[in-house]
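Bug #77: duplicate submission created two jobs. Keeping one. Sequence:
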Amino acid sequence: MTDFWTAFGVWLGALCTLAIWSFLYKDNPFYKFAEQIFVGVSAAFWFINTIYQILIPNLFQKLSSDFSGNWMLLIPGILGIMMLMRLVPKYEWLGKYPLSIMIGTAAGLSIIMFLKTDVINQIIATMLNPLNASSLSAKLGQIILIIGTIAGLVYFYFSKKHEGVIGGVAKIGIIFLMVSFGAAFGYTAMARISLLIGRLQFLLGEWLGLI
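Kept job's structure:
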């Protein structure tokens, strides 16, 4: 019985992969069917994962073991119930309050994280620790980092027209920005290619047994 379900899972994964790839030809019912399966399974997985990995250990178990010490957990529990009221048209307005709190909290935490990782740490690495590397290549990399950071900031300085020295530095900043965007795009493309290679290995190996 185990071998049957293993083979069934391999065939199901292979057929779903081919159905998704069929979109390369044109939009078709096989692609839409596989897409709906993927969305439905993902939603069901995260729903069950939220219940057993978040709600039960972090809310229900703590309230049942020590209610007096964890009564503050009722607040997020009530907010969660209010968010589910969006499924009831008559009480849909109740879901706006927890949704606004969640968005505001997430925005505040994201701003703090962004300032710390992308601004403060960048300033420290660029201005406070210049040229402290031991090897020549590392020092050259730090020099390029300093030049790129300053040139990129000058490009976004719009209080003065980009001409003369400022214009030249701004053009250098454009080059660094394009290289950065290209590297980010290349990283994304390579990640997608890695996924493609993984699916090809699955199809040729576990499904067809050719490799």
